[in-house]
């Protein structure tokens, strides 16, 4: 059974840093493009893609709102994905979700984590 489990969230002051982790299991991790999404308070219908990383890790993409502050990475050997978040702002407060999208023979497969809260506040 496919599973994505996020960790590393919490409360941090503006300007601080956090590192989110996503542990994958139950599917062929290195055949899936991976992303971080977030859903801000009061925006239950809007889930924003924050960052994307390709299967090999050779290609990444960031939302303009986090470019230069967040870094996405993955370790296929450990079936892990990470999001290093620096210079955090109050507007980064959201529930962050890990997402996997299948490629090739796994196209059409999509998995979501349960989400983890990140709160940026003084």
SSE topology sketch:
Elements (H helix, E strand, L loop, with lengths): L2 E5 L2 E3 L5 E8 L6 E8 L8 E6 L6 E3 L7 E6 L4 E6 L8 E9 L7 E3 L3 E5 L2
Structure, described:
By secondary structure, the chain is an all-beta fold. Helices cover 0% and strands 51% of the residues. The chain has no helices and eleven strands. The strands form two sheets. Strands 2, 4, 5, 6, 9, 10 and 11 form a seven-stranded mixed sheet that branches. β9 and β10 form a beta hairpin. The mean pLDDT is 96.
Q: Could you give a quick summary of the protein structure above?
A:
This protein is mainly beta and 122 residues long. The protein is 0% helix and 51% strand.
Keywords:
122 residues; mainly beta; 7-stranded mixed beta sheet; 4-stranded antiparallel beta sheet; 51% strand
- Most strands sheet: 7 strands, mixed
Taking pLDDT < 50 over at least 5 consecutive residues as the criterion, the unreliable ranges are none
- Give the SSE order as H and E letters: EEEEEEEEEEE
How far is the N terminus from the C terminus?
A: 40 Å
Beta content comes to over 45%
Please report the total strand number as a whole number: 11
Structural class by secondary-structure content: mainly beta
Mean pLDDT: 96
Number of helix segments?
A: 0
Apparent shape: globular
Question: Helical content, roughly?
Answer: under 10%
Radius of gyration using CA atoms only: 14 Å
């Amino acid at each position: 059974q496919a599973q994505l489990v996020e960790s590393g969230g919490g409360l941090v002051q503006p300007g601080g840093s956090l590192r989110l982790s996503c542990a994958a299991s139950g599917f062929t991790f290195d055949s899936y493009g991976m992303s971080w999404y977030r859903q801000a308070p009061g925006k239950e219908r809007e889930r924003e893609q924050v960052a994307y990383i390709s299967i090999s890790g050779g290609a990444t993409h960031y939302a303009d709102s986090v470019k230069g502050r967040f870094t996405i990475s993955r370790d296929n050997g450990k079936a892990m994905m990470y999001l290093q978040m620096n210079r955090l702002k109050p507007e980064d407060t959201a529930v962050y979700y890990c997402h996997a999208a299948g490629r090739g023979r796994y196209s059409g497969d999509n998995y979501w984590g349960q989400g983890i809260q990140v709160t940026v506040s003084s």
